[in-house]
Design brief:
By secondary structure, the protein is α+β, with helices and mostly antiparallel strands. The strands form 3 sheets. Strands 2, 4, 5, 6, 7 and 12 form a 6-stranded antiparallel beta sheet that branches. A 5-stranded mixed beta sheet has the order 3-1-13-8-9. A two-stranded antiparallel ribbon has the order 10-11.
Length: 320
């Protein structure tokens, strides 16, 4: 056989290998009227993503690939600035303590709205949620790209209510900026530090730790989001790991849709219909079309079978 089929085989092997290593893409979009600085933190045992913090101006988007079985959390930092004399970067909400835009392993200082993910976990499912357990600082939504497929509990989740405006006085975080005085809303645990609110000590189990009047404010406003530590039943969602990429949005677009309770979800699905996939499939079919009986097809089948086998067993193929 000539060089062309060998090159084609190696190309297909490489493409599938990359898809195995980077199985999920997170796309962050800022619909807020102000700048947001997303923070990203990998859980223990998971590698950091290509960035641990970046800036999103109003209307901007950024996509970040994640490897198979990655686990971690995302949040948005707000009211951020950099000191001209020292270069230190700080945020009024969601600050990660790194002194720079990259969080470099630092987590969000409460209060902060969190999106939490564990990819390719039990049963080959992605587990995800939006949590207000550490308080709230801005609207956030998680939209699975293929959530319309109905695999598992694969639904949009998040909080699109401005809780800062309705936050009880004793939980409010205030800014010196008179134009935006209420910048975040603490959890009762953060505000009072009592075991009954923090689900610790004698309250460290679901039988003794129950929703408080404060967490119920969060739950009523954002029923799909975690409102306290043992809120699993209504706030954890799952998608088939092989099917889903995720859109993470801050705030919501001005356009509304009647097709979904969440405008972002409807807009996302309308913008990602099957036409693009059909064009992709057609392109792949055209580029790999071979004459019937050509021995090159055997090599292609073997290469693809080996690559897929490695991918499904969560092994990373050797570099080519």
């Amino acid at each position: 056989m000539g060089a062309r089929p060998v090159f084609l085989s190696l190309t297909i092997f490489t493409i599938i290998s990359i898809q195995c290593v980077y199985s999920t893409t997170f796309t962050f979009t800022n619909y807020c009227s102000y700048t947001v600085w997303p923070g990203l933190l990998a859980s223990a045992g998971s590698p950091p993503l290509e960035t641990t913090g970046f800036v999103l101006q109003k209307g901007e988007s950024k996509s970040i690939p994640a490897p198979t079985s990655w686990s971690g959390r995302f949040w948005g930092r707000t009211v951020c600035s950099q000191y001209s004399t020292t270069g230190k970067f700080t945020c009024v909400t969601g600050d990660c303590g790194s002194g720079q835009i990259e969080c470099a392993g630092g987590g969000a200082t409460p209060p902060a709205t969190l999106a939490e993910f564990t990819l390719n976990d039990s049963g080959g499912l992605d587990f995800y949620d939006v949590s207000l357990v550490d308080g709230y600082n801005l609207q956030m939504l998680v939209v699975p790209k293929d959530g319309s497929a109905g695999t598992g509990n694969c639904n949009t989740t998040g909080c699109l209510v401005d809780l800062n405006g309705m936050c009880p006085t004793e939980l409010k975080v205030l800014s010196s900026d008179s134009s935006t005085p209420n910048v975040a809303c603490k959890s009762a645990c953060e505000a009072f530090g009592e075991d009954q609110y923090c689900c610790r000590g004698a309250y460290a189990n679901p039988d003794t730790c129950h929703p408080s009047s404060y967490s119920e404010i969060f739950k009523h406003a954002c029923p799909r989001a975690y409102s306290y530590a043992y809120d699993d039943g209504t706030s954890t969602f799952t998608c088939a790991s092989s099917q889903s990429d995720y859109l993470i949005t801050f705030c919501q677009p001005s356009a509304n849709s009647q097709k979904s309770n969440y405008p972002e979800a409807a807009m996302y699905f309308m913008g990602n219909d099957s036409n693009n996939q059909d064009e992709y499939d057609t392109s792949i079919a055209s580029s790999t079309r071979l004459q019937h009986g050509d021995a090159r097809i055997l090599l292609l089948v073997i290469v693809m079978a080996v690559s897929i086998s490695l991918c499904t067993s969560n092994l990373v193929p050797p570099s080519l």
